[in-house]
Amino acid sequence: LRMTRQRSIILEELRKSRIHPTANQVYELVRRRMPRVSLATVYRNLEKLTQAGMVQTVELTGCRRRYDGWADEHTHVRCVDCGRVEDISGGVLDRAAERVGRLSAYKILGHHLEFTGRCPKCERKGSLLKRKGKRRKGDA
Ligand SMILES: [Zn+2]
Ligand SMILES: [Zn+2]
User: What's the CA gap between 55 and 76, in Å, rounded?
Assistant: First the structure.
């Protein structure tokens, strides 16, 4: 893949952000450095970078597709309150894949597993609101 200036900036911003942004969020990030870039261009380049294996997409239930500048294998955990997605590095699933392969006699090529939880920030906020006795929804 030819690394045009646009592509390098997209990749750079993606790697810097670590929030697993949607295409729209990538667009917002990139626009600060390239004010004239269009959303369509960002989409197209994200597509190319994904095909080249430099970016991976994160598909999570009930969420828009997100992009990840780190293409190495890692697991994601998503907060059910604010929707943030964080990385868990290390092959937490290596053993599981091995085992599934053994049990099914399939050659396992990949997996799609999603952990959900509540991030420390939301958890703190949740217990604070509960203590005040007025837990509101939607004021993230
Ligand atoms: Zn959260
Ligand atoms: Zn990730």
Answer: 15
Closest-CA residue to 92 (of 117, 113, 108, 69): 113
Q: Which residue has the higher pLDDT, 58 or 91?
A: 58
- Ligand (nearest to CA of 140): 1
Residue 101 has pLDDT above 60, yes or no: yes
CA contacts within 13 A on the Cβ side of 49: 28
Q: Report H helices in the chain.
A: 5-17, 23-31, 39-51, 94-104, 120-132
Which residues are found with C-beta within 5 Å of the ion, ligand 2?
68, 87
Q: Which ligand is nearest to the CA of 57?
A: 2
pTM: 0.71
Q: What's the distance, CA 90 to chain centroid? A: 16
